[in-house]
Amino acid sequence: MPVSHSVDREPSEATNSTENEHQNQTDNDDRPDDGLPINELFYSLQGEGTLAGVPSVFVRTSGCNLRCWFCDSYHTSWEPTHAWMSLEEILAEIESYDADHVVLTGGEPLLHDASADLLSELDDRGYHTTVETNGTIHRDAPIDLASISPKLESSTPTPERDPRSEIPEESRNGERRSRGAANRGDGEWEQRHESARLDLDALTELVETHPFQLKFVVTDADDMPEILDLLAELRDAATVPIRDENVLLMPEGATRERLAETRTRTAELAMEHGFRYTPRLHVDLWNDAPET
Asked: Is 64 annotated to bind ligand?
């Protein structure tokens, strides 16, 4: 179900915290004490990773500490929208679907304290939970699969990599688009994203604490040296093995047209380096439609 089309306010430049930043965007809302800002909640097929094709309920929170220029959920980042739902309401909606798997996604779902509470409730009810995260935040919560997507330099918004090119035509009007929907002339998000996109300590804690997959969005072969360097650092830091089978390369693209440009090269790179290739099944099936 689509939840809201109300646009959050732009974050204050003075705040550098995670959840506080997103709360500053939405401090006029009538929020439940135990709630989460939900962008959409729906039933579909998992489109990415080792569980691709598994019927799942998706709980998409709003708000993100990063701003990938190619973000395929721009209404949680560049144009964050949401409705506040209590945990009771979220759980009731999840239980209305005939599914055993729940995917907590965003945005960055681990921004929010209540995400850990939701994961605990889902664990108590016997659901398999996947958390899709950028790997910059760790929380103490039961997670069956941490789907970690560390952000590479190629994700950073620049004047040449303008997020407006990824915003669908129907959203391109001055009334709906927030000021964050363009990389402003002062390069605010270029600097903030680049400084925050990797956190080796949080990444290490995530892989040591949960079953995991490392899912890298690949634009072209230029991304591979950074991926290999990061894997070497992570393998040195972590007390658990980081096997090649845990590493997935996923083509960059939120539309079928863009995937047609990136998927073949990404698949070739996966074979060349011995990593897994993951499709974007939801894009292949439904293009960039919402609730997929």
From this structure: yes
